[in-house]
Amino acid sequence: MPDAAAEPGTAAARNAAEEKSAFSHPAVEPDSTAGYGDHPDQVIDFYAPRGVTGPGEAAPVVVVLHGGSWRAPYDRRHISPFAGFLAERGFAVASVEYRRGAEGPGLDGSGEPVAGRWPDTFDDVAAALDALPELVRQHLPRADALRTVLTGHSAGGHLALWAAARHLLPADAPWRTDRPAPLRGVVALAPIADFEVADKLDVCGGAARQLLGDGELFAERRPYADPALLLPTGIATTLVQGRADVDVPQAVAEAYADAAAKAGEVVGVTLLEDVGHYPLIDPAADACAVVAEEIAQLAW
Q: How many CA atoms lie within 13 A of 115 on its CB side?
C-alpha cells in the first residue's frame, strides 16, 4: 500500500500516489460468477460487453489475471475496476481468482504473507483456463471464445505468460498441454516475467523465490514456472511496461524480451514514459487506455 512517509517528488512518493489512485475506485460487481473447482478461490467473474463491441456481433474475450505478488491479501476485487473498464470498451471479460500465499508471517520472519502456493497457484490457473471455453458459453453468450486474449498485471502478468506457454512445459509437468492454447495473444502488464532477474532485484520482496521455494527448490522448479525459460510460445505477445516502475522494474520485461529473441521469437515491448506500476490497471490513468488498445490490436 502507499508509503505515507515517502518524501514528495521521490520515486516512492510517485509510486504511492499512483497506487492510491488505482485502489481508490469502488469495486465493480460482475454480471455473474462461476466456479471452476471446489475451493472458494477457484472462481471466475464474468463481465458482459458494454458499449461498442467493434466489428461483428460477438465480442472478444479478455481473460484477466490479477497481481499482488501472489499474496493472499490481494484478490481479484482490486482489479475489478480494470475489468469493468475493459467491458465498457466492448470486451467480454473473465477475471480469474486463484489460490495465493497463506496469511501470516513471511518466510523471512516479516509480517508480509508468503507469495503463492506451490503447486496450487499453478493448478488453479491451468484449471481455470481449461474450464473457460465452456464457462464463457454459459455466462457470456455475446462472446467469441475463439478470439481470446490473456492479460495480467504484475504477478498476474507472469501467470498470463505462463498459461500461454503450457505446451512448452517439461514432459512430466501436470499442467502441460499437447498443443498451444487457442489464443489471439497475450498482453502482459509489468509482468514478473523472468525469475532470475526478478530474484536478483528482489522484486516484490523476493516474491518469486517465495513462490517456488528457497535453495534447491528455486532452481528445480524454475523450468516449470519461469516464462523466460518457456520460449518460443508461437503466440503473439506484448509486454506493457512503465519506465518509472519501481515495483517490477523495466529490466525484468527486457530480460524476457531478450530471452524470446534468443529463442527466435519477437515479443513486443511497449514502454510508457513517466508511468509506474499501477497506472496500467487504473481506469483514471491514460496508460489504461493504452493497454486497452494493445488488447484490441490482438483481439479484433
A: 22
What is the signed CA dihedral for 17, 75, 71, 283, rounded to 10 degrees? Answer: -30
Query: Nearest CA to 250 among 187, 193, 289, 165?
Result: 193
Upstream peptide bond of 119 is cis (omega within 30 degrees of 0): yes
pTM for the predicted model, two decimal places:
0.94
pLDDT digits (tens, 9 = 90+) for 247-282: 999 999 999 999 999 999 999 999 999 999 999 999
pLDDT digits (tens, 9 = 90+) for 152-179: 999 999 999 999 999 999 999 999 999 9
Q: How far apart are CA 104 and CA 111, in angstroms?
A: 7
- Cα 88 from chain centroid? 20
**Nearest to 279, CA basis, from 4, 104, 25, 34:** 25
- Could you please report the per-residue DSSP string of 3-72? -TTPPTTSHHHHHHHHHHHHTSSPPPPPSEEEESSSSTT-EEEEE---S---SSSSEEEEEEE--STTBT
Q: Which set of grid coordinates corresponds to residue 180?
A: 498451444
Whether the Cβ atoms of residue 30 and residue 40 lie closer than 8 Å to each other:
no
- CA count, 13 A, side-chain hemisphere, 247: 29
DSSP structural state of residue 166: G
Cβ-contact 187, 291 below 8 angstroms: yes
44 pLDDT higher than 50:
yes
Predicted confidence band at 4 (pLDDT cuts at 50, 70, 90)? very low
